[in-house]
Amino acid sequence: MKKIKLTKVIASTLMVASILALNPIRANAEWRKDSKGWWYAVGNSYYKNQWKQIGGDWYYFGYNGYLVQNRIEDGYYLNSDGAWATGSEEIQAYVKILTNPRLLKDKYGLSIPNSLIKSNTSYSADIVDINKDGIYEALVGSETSHADAKTSVFTYKNGNIQFSGDLGNDVYYSEKQNVLLGSVMFQGDQTGGVYKLEDGKLIKVHSFELINNFFKESYVIDRESVTKEQSNKFFEQYGENNMYIRK
């Protein structure tokens, strides 16, 4: 995302003085970035858990203060720059189903608590073009407890939303290989697989089981035991910073 410059040329110095008097903290407002993402500093604080209009565009900052990007939040699509946008045809279709939790549960089998159905709470989704075909997919997390936590994947085909399949609750997208890595984690152990999107469906191309706790350490890729180094080499092909590489 490009840094947004907040300095504007205003002819009247009196107007500038008035603005600063009303909003003194905004004089130090600026976009900042680190290895985790963008945030918006305002004096000694920053925006979090809220929508904010900056430079004519609306943005949403999450619970940790970082800018939300490539995501549908509160029924609104935030593009790759983090700005609220209308989005493509499939994104508009995803917005509609995400605002209907009962449909998500009854038709697509998502793990949604009855309390959220009663309150008609909108669900969020990460937006990514998994196989780079120009059609965006929606990744929707849901759970009523840790036992049924999962990520459901939707794509768009012939003018209709298509359910592609479920993954574990921990999901990593490999832009390098155009695949999803999904797993279930329990007490430090991870069991899951590598999935590609083919003809609208998730296809598992690899499986893995990573056990690393006080009692046992083992690594299994496609049902074969491997060393920790071999396991790391396997996952490095999907990106050097993914969560499956063990230090």
Account of the 3D structure:
The structure is a single chain. With 247 residues, the chain is of the alpha+beta class. It folds into three domains: 1-50, no CATH class; 68-167, no CATH class; 174-247, no CATH class. It is 16% helix and 40% strand. It is built from five helices and 18 strands. It has helices at 13-22, 89-98, 101-106, 114-118, 228-236; strands at 30-34, 37-42, 45-46, 50-54, 57-61, 71-73, 76-78, 84-85, 125-128, 137-142, 150-157, 160-167, 170-174, 179-186, 189-198, 201-212, 217-221, 224-226. The strands form four sheets. Strands 8-7-6-9-10-11-12 form a seven-stranded antiparallel beta sheet, covered by helices on one side. Strands 13-14-15-16-17-18 form a six-stranded antiparallel beta sheet. Strand 16 (201-212) and strand 17 form a beta hairpin. The chain is globular. Mean pLDDT is 87; it is low at 1-25.
Name some characteristics of this structure:
alpha+beta; single chain; seven-stranded antiparallel sheet; six-stranded antiparallel sheet; 247 residues
